[in-house]
Every structure is written in structure tokens, then in C-alpha cells.
Amino acid sequence: MNDTPTMSQRADALEEQMSRELDYIVVKSRLYSMAEGDMGPAVNANAIMAKNPNARVLMGDDPRLPAMPEKPTLMDFFKYRFGPAAHLLQSAKHAMNAGLSDKMVLASLLHDISTIGFIRGDHGYWGAQLVEPYVDEEVTWAIRAHQVLRFYPDDSVGYEYPQSYIKAFGAGYRPDPYVEEDYKRMRDHKWYMSGRMITVHDIYSFDPDAKVELEEFTDVIGRNFRQPEQGLGFDNSPVAHMWRAMIRPAKYL
User: Fold this and answer.
1) pLDDT per residue over 172-222, tens digit each?
2) Is the C-alpha dihedral spanning 38, 44, 49, 50 positive or negative?
3) Distances in whole angstroms, Cα of residue 243 to Cα of each of 23, 53, 100, 116, 229
4) Domains in the chain, start-ordered, CATH in brackets?
5) Residue 97 CA neighbour count, 13 Å, CB half
6) In the chain, fewer beta carbons within 10 Å around the N or the C end?
7) What's the N-to-C CA distance of the chain in angstroms?
8) 32 membership: H or E segment, kind and range
9) DSSP summary character for residue 111
10) 3-state DSSP: the chain helix, strand, coil percent, rounded to 5?
């Protein structure tokens, strides 16, 4: 008698094994659901577990995502959590080639990290908050300010309202009143030009053929980003939970 399993039997066994290994329930955050236009209730995890006693909600690492180091660094987030970062790398390279300070090169490198790793809306405000405990105050201010200043031209540095915005938002778009109020405050600030420089080096950094490596900024990050010894997300800073949310974006509670 031939006890060797057939190809079909092996496939069935593999599928059963994978099913057991993937007995986890993903409950999307409310913010994600609303972005999909879904105002309905969340997935009923209890009902799923009643049908599948092996199923569990995610309370640890998400097996669908790359594993993060125990003490993750900023470089690790670029590698394992942030989305495509070519624009940020180009922006920082453009700032570096223009002779800007290390601080401003770092600000250019980080200005859109919320967009590629966390939340798109008000990304400058979120991004500034994410890095605030780890960078110079001027860097934080500039990242927050670029969110606002990008909507307003500045002839003194040759910055025009981007044509891409007219295409994306429409010719009649006007920034929200809170943006206008922030602009009025920011344009007279001592670090106005720091925020403005991000916008200047931002708009020239969308070349699909340009190749810039993250490692080119290892020294800039090392000198200007205060990497916590415990790892980002585990240093008990006021923003540690935000970094943990990117490590485990589908964590149930």
C-alpha cells in the first residue's frame, strides 16, 4: 500500500496548516473605516471566535508585516514600516546639495513621515509631533510649518504655488481657515525660512529616475536625531504610543 500523500492531499494539508497559522482576526481602526466611507460597526470578533475557537484578535506582532527589531531605530522604520520614501530621500539630497545645515537636511528627510507611515491629513502637524522629543526644536517647527507654507508663494526664494496642487485640488481650492491663521503667525516667526526651505526643496523632489539611498543620511541622522536607547516606541516619551501604533497598526487594544 502506498502511504505517500498525493499532490492534492499535500495541498490540502498545507492549506489546513496555513489556516491554523493565520487564525487571527484583524479589526480595522475606526479612522481607517471612516476613510473608506464605512460608518458601520466594526468586525464582530466574538462572533468569529465562536465559530472558530482557535481564532484570536491581534494583540502582538502582525504576521503580515515585516518583523521589527526589539529596539527599533528611525532607520528601521524607514526600512520596515514607512511606505516608499523616494520623495523624502530626494528632498533631503536636494537640501544637502544646496548646502543647507544638517538640521535642515534632517527636516527635509522627515517632513512627510506621517504621510508615508501614519496619517495623511495634517501630516505636517502629526510628523512634527512624532519627532519632537528627538530633534532640535527648529526641526520640529519647520516640519509643522511646511504643511502650511506650501500653500503660499514666496517670491523671495522663488517658491510658487505648485501646479500639481491646482491639478490635485482644483483651481478654486482655498486652505482651511486654521491653515490661514497659522500662516499669519508663521510668516513672522524667527524660523520662517527654515519651514520655507522644506517647501523649496520639496517641490523639486519627484524624479522617478533619481536614485538616493537612505544610508547616505546615516551621519546626519546620527548627529541630529536622538535615538532612544530603548527603541522608538518603548522610551516612555509623550509620543512613544504613536511609534508603537506604526509597529502594530492592527493591534486590537
Assistant:
1) 999 999 999 999 999 999 999 999 999 999 987 788 888 999 999 999 999
2) negative
3) 26, 32, 28, 13, 14
4) 7-57 (no CATH), 74-247 (1.10.3210)
5) 11
6) N
7) 53
8) helix 30-35
9) T
10) 55, 0, 45
